[in-house]
Amino acid sequence: MTIGSLIMLFIAAALVNNLVLSMFLGICPFLGVSRKVDMAFGMGCAVTFVITLSAIVTWLLVHGVLVPVGGAMSLDLSFLKYVIFIAVIASMVQLVEMYLRKFFPSLYTAFGVFLPLITTNCAILGACLLIDMRSYNLVEAITFSFAGGIGFALAITIMAGIREHLVFSDIPKAMKGPGITLLVAAILAMSFMGFAGMMR
Amino acid sequence: MANDNGNGAAAQFKAGVWSDNPVLVQLLGMCPTLAITNSVENALVMGAAATFVLVCSNLVTSVLRPLIRPHVRILIFTITIATFVTIADRYLAAHMFEVSKKLGAFVPLIIVNCIIICRAEVCAIKNGPIKSLCDAFGIGLGFTIALTILGVIRELLGSGSLLGYPVMPAGFEHWVIMVLPPGAFLTLGIVIGVVNHLRLRRSAGGAA
Predict the structure, then answer these.
(1) Residue from B192, B195, B197 to probe the interface with A (highest A Cβ count within 10 Å)
(2) A178 lies within 8 A of chain B by CB
(3) What would the pLDDT profile of A151-168 be if each residue is shown by its tens digit?
(4) What are the boundaries of each domain within chain B?
(5) A142 CB contacts (<8 Å, ≥6 apart)?
(6) Residue in chain B nearest A117 by alpha carbon
């Protein structure tokens, strides 16, 4: 594994296979919390933070506990993965919340309600599962999850920027709200497809 | 209350399919909706799997509701859901390997499908098993219908086939974009627009 391949992995995860726009993970916050740029950016930062932490912890749990314990008992414990992953993510979010409240109160108030919401963000669980399915090593797992978080933050911030302007446009009544947002997302997804040309 | 239980249950079922349709009206569970509707088969299997998990988790939550303390309820919901998702995932991998491979990470991702947590929180924790079951079947059916509509549109235009059988006349140019990610956003946006239009017209007609 070289630095070059890690950079490739980073670009692939952040732009080409953007979690939101090409893998459809984390669509709910993408549509729900993209009304204002500063809120969207806060959400993006919180997700990047939690996604990286959870990826590290779940990777360590799978390779440090599940595999050796399963091997010692000659059992395949992989069916426990989903339950463990979701429990790790829920407690990670809980921990991050307590830590921020104690040591960085200003950041905590800035994130506000988004922190608990992250538990049900499928981007996080999705990233952990993908890391497991593609059997990345620890360094690759960290790169992939961090890049995925950056990609999420990028997509949601761009979306919020567009929606702030969309407020002033004349949209047919039936298309207001989710309808037009999805069409904008379609155009965004098309433009992100252009990044596929970078991987060659 | 016991009297109108049957009525309430039936109404709950109908609401789940149309007026509270989880995808088209409440905009929940968007991720699988967008990701796996590039063919009808995927849409049907995903709908069935999510309905199974929803029914089981609603039943368990509703039966356990006297024991669940409010502050740990979300944790209990997620663990319950994760258990049933594991069952569904193993079943799919054993009996429908090809589809399970195509759905990939989206079967385990049913765990964080907000529809299911939402129904546990809104319905199952407050109501008895019968009403919760009807609710789960209604919402599950509504989810499956919405997925199938999207699947039909995208597979028809994108690959010119339905359930894998070619149906479009020869010479039909495939709209490749429809099976790619942007097509998902586009189709869902337009379908939601149409549904909204129908609802607006109906409520306008009712008022006149």
Answers:
(1) B192
(2) yes
(3) 999 999 999 999 888 888
(4) 5-166+173-207
(5) A52, A55, A56
(6) B114
